[in-house]
Amino acid sequence: MPLSANSVVVLDFETTGLSPNMGDRAIEIGAVKLLNGEVADTFQQLMNPGFRVSSFIERYTGISNNMLRTAPSCAEVMREFASFVGQSNMVAHNASFDKRFLDAELLPLGIEYQGQFACSMLIARRLYQDAPTHKLGDLVRYKNIEHDGVFHRALADSEMTAKLWMVMLQELQTRGVMEPEFAFMQKIAKTSKSALDSLIGKQARLARV
């Protein structure tokens, strides 16, 4: 399993609602595989949840019931995605949401993944405390990250999250944290805002030893 934070799978789900515990299902997954900070591969697939989605979700995502009617089943897509991820660590914006749906879709298939999750939203809250909000679109505009204006489609959002992730890694490098490990990014997400400078300073000093 890659330890470096610049070799990860960045993923995003579009879903029928907010909670698999309430019967909601995934309807699209998009992912970007980063290897040494470069895009090595992408994954995108609609999936048929087995029931009609609401008109609100159709409008919000741009994914219609007609599009889903001919899409493969969630089980088929998630088997393919598990192979795509392999043993990689994973990143998502608001990762607790995506992890819930990943777990819910893989559990019936008896598939377990080896990698861990990091949340780009929580990390951005620590690194960009002056951002107006920490929604993905607002952070992309705040950091002047190039984008095509498409949001709430899985591959577009995972591509934007991957770009944001690399911007955050580059900014840590300017503060002396060269090629941080994935575990360090997880630690940032759990560190209080007031303790962040101390954490980064300590890590930078260790990097110089």
From TrEMBL:
- Signal sequence, renumbered to the chain: none
The Exonuclease domain covers 7-174
Spell out the Gene3D superfamilies in the cross-references: Ribonuclease H-like superfamily/Ribonuclease H
Q: Give GO BP annotations, semicolon-separated.
A: DNA replication proofreading
Show the GO MF annotations: 3'-5' exonuclease activity; DNA binding; DNA-directed DNA polymerase activity
InterPro entries hit by this protein: DnaQ, Ribonucl_H, RNaseH-like_sf, RNaseH_sf
- A single cellular component GO annotation: cytosol
What does the record give as EC number? 2.7.7.7
Q: Which reaction does it catalyse?
A: DNA(n) + a 2'-deoxyribonucleoside 5'-triphosphate = DNA(n+1) + diphosphate
Give the UniProt keywords, A-Z: Exonuclease, Hydrolase, Nuclease
Q: Which domain of life is it from?
A: Bacteria
Q: Subunit details for this protein?
A: DNA polymerase III contains a core (composed of alpha, epsilon and theta chains) that associates with a tau subunit. This core dimerizes to form the POLIII' complex. PolIII' associates with the gamma complex (composed of gamma, delta, delta', psi and chi chains) and with the beta chain to form the complete DNA polymerase III complex.
Q: What does this protein do?
A: DNA polymerase III is a complex, multichain enzyme responsible for most of the replicative synthesis in bacteria. The epsilon subunit contain the editing function and is a proofreading 3'-5' exonuclease.
Q: What is this protein called?
A: DNA-directed DNA polymerase
